[in-house]
Automatic annotation (TrEMBL):
It comes from the Eukaryota. PROSITE patterns: PROTEIN_KINASE_DOM (PS50011), PROTEIN_KINASE_TYR (PS00109). GO terms for molecular function: ATP binding; protein kinase activity. It holds the Pfam family Pkinase. Gene3D superfamilies: Transferase(Phosphotransferase) domain 1 (1.10.510.10). This is 11206_t:CDS:1. Residues 1-186 form the Protein kinase domain. InterPro entries: Kinase-like_dom_sf, Meiotic_Drive_Suppr_Kinase, Prot_kinase_dom, Tyr_kinase_AS.
Length: 186
């Protein structure tokens, strides 16, 4: 769950409330002012929920965003999409893209992530540290094979003697992939 970025946003903007959403669920977050290191997270609620309490919470947060225009913190600038055709077109295009991609988000992307980690494991089995893990050095073929390229910075090291180096490189790749597949929590 993407709690850490939401926590950071709440802290940086001194906000008490937040909403975290996925394709299927949402959670309400509450950070008490008198307990700055605590964060309360609601149970997972269906995105289709018509519960009056849920709708009221959304309404309050929308009202707060619109009416708290004197706050020194970032606020939401609302426009009526019907009056701004470009905004409406962009919103509709984004919604369509999310709907079209919903299936791969949960199946295809985790498979590619696992394949990338397995590719690095295979490289490590040959006693090679890549030493240049970054997005530009990861390729995906049309057959969904993952390749790690550019070994110009690579080093050979005994995997038994330098286990931590290999583990650190796996962690580095995992963190890189997390940026594209999910956010890590606190």
């Amino acid at each position: 769950m993407a709690v850490q970025p939401t926590w950071n946003y709440l802290c940086e903007n001194e906000l008490q409330y937040g909403i975290l959403s996925t394709y299927d669920y949402h959670w309400f977050l509450y950070k008490p002012k008198n307990a700055p290191s605590e964060l309360y997270i609601s149970e997972a609620l269906s995105l289709e929920s018509k519960c009056p309490v849920v709708l009221m919470a959304y309404a309050y947060m929308a009202w707060k965003a619109v009416n708290d225009c004197h706050s020194r913190y970032p606020s939401i600038i609302l426009t009526q999409p019907a009056k701004n055709r470009q905004v409406l077109d962009e919103l509709l295009k984004e919604i369509k893209a999310y709907n079209d991609l919903a299936d791969i988000q949960g199946k295809y992307i985790p498979k590619l992530r696992a394949n990338a980690l397995e590719a690095l494991r295979e490289i490590h089995k040959h006693g090679i540290l890549h030493d240049d893990i970054r997005a530009e050095n990861i390729l995906v073929s049309n057959q969904d094979d993952v390749y790690i390229i550019d070994f110009g910075m690579s080093n050979r090291a005994d995997i038994k003697k330098k286990r931590k180096w290999y583990q650190d490189e796996m962690t580095q790749l995992s963190c890189l992939l997390d940026q594209y597949t999910r956010c890590s929590g606190p």
